[in-house]
Write a structure and sequence with these properties.
This protein has helices spanning 4-23, 26-49, 206-212, 242-261, 281-293, 302-310, 328-337, 355-362, 377-393, and strands at residues 53-60, 63-65, 69-78, 82-91, 95-104, 109-117, 122-126, 129-134, 141-146, 150-155, 167-168, 175-176, 191-194, 216-219, 227-232, 265-269, 276-277, 316-323, 341-349, 366-370. It is an alpha/beta fold. α4 (242-261) packs antiparallel against α5 (281-293).
Length: 394
């Protein structure tokens, strides 16, 4: 369609026609015809040039944490010479970037790069890009879209935690402060996982290793002491502010990453289904994406959901419950689940002297508390050190 300049040229041509009719000067008519022809020709030019463009987008990385930055690279290729190309690429919800080139020759590549500050957590659509092409005179413009719609996944912000809860291994008389895989277990196939130093190379699953481009080990059974269950309370009621809920999400994500890196096979539950078993990198990304998109829910019967969850047979070495200002529903859910786990940990966003929080401690849980604007690293480390002292004293 005509640009502002094109509409101005059309108006000028109309005025010239009126003047020609009034004075009979053929030069005025010729100038009017030239302007109209230029506008029509420019419109035809941009319409023919539009479909000749191709755009490719690369996002690095496509998954990252709240507060980190992603780089987006764009490459635009035209099959013919085009003028005044304007490319707008939008990250929906986070902003957009615009690039302009005076001309792009046939076969040449127009490259652009921009940086995105990824905040807050969530899943964002990137693109398609909006491309505008103007004719050489600037009388007409054609706008189209190019490129596919990509996803940018922003995980919750995480903290580096130190120490893991003391767990009990296959030998029920032995405590361990680090999960270890039971390599001499039964012959029931459980899952595939990434190779860890010390694994028996005879258990390498070569087809999966070739597919993932890294060594994958056949784990024949889930080790009892490496099981961990992370329960995130998605209710809005325990939180007095949005900052409190976000702090709880950060706590759950930090624990999930920490336990997974420490050799545990955690299951992440955030209010629906039976949770996500995190036994490999893909499952880890799926669980983190679930935390990236979680929102507070109201009028949720936590006790009923946990009762149904317990019937699925979830049990193991470590139970971690994450909530806000703990209430009776949290304590009731904890009492149901804690019977099936050797070590229990409660992460609470609120005041440490809350009666229900003290109830968790009285039931044998390691209690980790922080404020909505605080951190998890120091309270977690202190709780783990306290747990070790109790274990060694016994």
């Amino acid at each position: 369609m005509p640009t502002f300049r094109g509409w101005a040229a059309t108006g000028a041509a109309s005025a010239l026609v009126v003047l020609w009719a009034a004075f009979g000067e053929d030069l005025l008519l010729a100038l009017a015809i030239f302007l109209i022809t230029a506008v029509v020709g420019g419109t035809a030019y941009v319409r023919l040039s539009g479909p000749k463009l191709a755009l490719r987008r690369m996002i690095n990385p496509e998954q990252l944490h709240d507060g980190e930055r992603a780089l987006v690279d764009l490459a635009l290729v035209s099959k013919r010479k085009v003028y005044r190309v304007r490319v707008e690429d939008r990250v929906h919800g986070l902003g957009s970037a615009t690039f302009v080139a005076d001309r792009v020759a046939a076969g040449d590549q127009m490259a652009g790069r921009y940086e995105v500050l990824c905040r807050p957590r969530g899943v964002y659509k990137v693109g398609p890009s909006r491309i505008s092409i103007t004719d050489p005179i600037g009388f007409a413009e054609a706008t189209s879209t190019a490129g596919i719609v990509d996803r940018l996944v922003v995980y919750p912000k995480v903290e580096d935690l130190a120490g893991v809860p003391t767990g009990r291994g296959q030998d029920q008389t032995t405590n361990t402060s680090r999960a270890s895989f039971w390599h001499m277990g039964g012959e029931d196939f459980f899952t595939l996982r990434e190779y860890q130093q010390g694994d028996d190379l005879r258990r390498v699953h070569w087809p999966s290793s070739a597919k993932h481009d890294e060594l994958m080990i056949k784990q024949l059974e889930m080790p009892w002491q490496s099981r961990a269950f992370i329960v995130f309370d998605p209710r809005a009621e325990p939180h007095q502010s949005a900052e409190s809920f976000e702090q709880a999400v950060r706590g759950a994500a930090s624990v999930l990453r920490h336990l997974f890196r420490s050799g545990y096979t955690p299951t992440m539950w955030a209010g629906s289904g039976n949770g996500t078993l995190v036994s490999n990198g893909e499952a880890y990304r799926h669980a983190m994406e679930e935390l990236a998109t979680i929102a507070p829910r109201r009028a949720l019967d936590l006790r009923h959901l946990v009762s149904r969850l317990r019937r699925s047979g979830m049990a193991g070495g470590v139970l971690v419950m994450v909530t806000g200002q703990a209430d009776e529903a949290d304590l009731a859910a904890f009492q149901l689940l804690s019977q099936d786990f050797y070590r229990t940990v409660v992460l609470s966003v609120g005041q440490g002297d809350n009666g229900d929080v003290l109830g968790f401690a009285g039931a044998g849980a390691l209690v980790v508390t922080t404020s909505p604007d605080g951190t998890w690293a120091n309270p977690w480390r202190n709780a783990m050190e306290h747990g070790w002292s109790i274990a060694s004293a016994g």
